[in-house]
Amino acid sequence: MDANEVISRHISMSNKGMMRPLRLIILLLLQYRVIGAWRWNPEDEHPCNIHRTMTFRQVLETFGPSGIPALFPEPVILRASDAFRNEQFRKLTEQEEIVRWFGEDFNVTLSSSNSLSENRRIVPLKQYIDETVTAKETLPDQLANESWYLFGETYSEEWSTFLKHYEIPPCYTCSDWPVALAFGIGNRGSGVQWHMHGPGFSEAIHGRKHWILYPPKERPDYEKDQSSRQWMETTYWEVVSKPLECTLHPGDLIYFPDKWHHATINLDTYTVFVSAFTTEHNLGLSDEL
């Protein structure tokens, strides 16, 4: 129950001779709103209102062996089965294993976490994991353009070799050539503020990752340098039309449609994910849907 529902319920009860104590309760509720007592905590379990939630078997039974059709018009959550699909890759991406694979001096390019992700910073992978990912939590008041995050800048030959161990999701255009894989590691509270791009998938490998989405014609109200966690804490409860949202657990994937607005928040200390960006919007298939 949110704050509006609590206040409305207490006001309706005031007709039963409970006016004075209820006035106090309502004032306290309003005061808690102002000081931010309702906090969005990454450690909590969060709702999922994306209605098309399927297992991999259900995807194949519904759409056939080619998987999710090109330019599918709505988000889909693919829940992990008992057998972890990318178990080998999961082992390779454990903290010590990934440093051993690349070496302690291997540099990674971090991006700023704001909507444009326009700033870059280069640091050794081990330093990023030790000093940022496992040692810090990104707090709501930290500006996204000043928060650094490994995602997207993983297209070098070294990363391409590493990502060959990742099993690509089931979809109509998910062969090797139309898919660009992007690898990411984040700490608790990190994420990317609202943005949009072409369609694709994102899979949680370690840790949980929360997604919030709006369709193309429903642009959310946000500040580009505000963090996505701050948006959840300060703006989410004010929004009349709530976004679609869902948390990915390890092994889960989300299909995000073309040009949908979305933001993400990493919920656990060591959150690892892979995004697969498809090029289906260039294949002229939209008229077939």
From TrEMBL:
Single Gene Ontology MF annotation: cis-regulatory region sequence-specific DNA binding
Cellular component, GO annotation: nucleus
All copies of domain JmjC, residue ranges: 157-289
Listed Pfam families: Cupin_8
Name by which UniProt lists this protein: JmjC domain-containing protein
Species this protein is from: Fistulifera solaris (Oleaginous diatom)
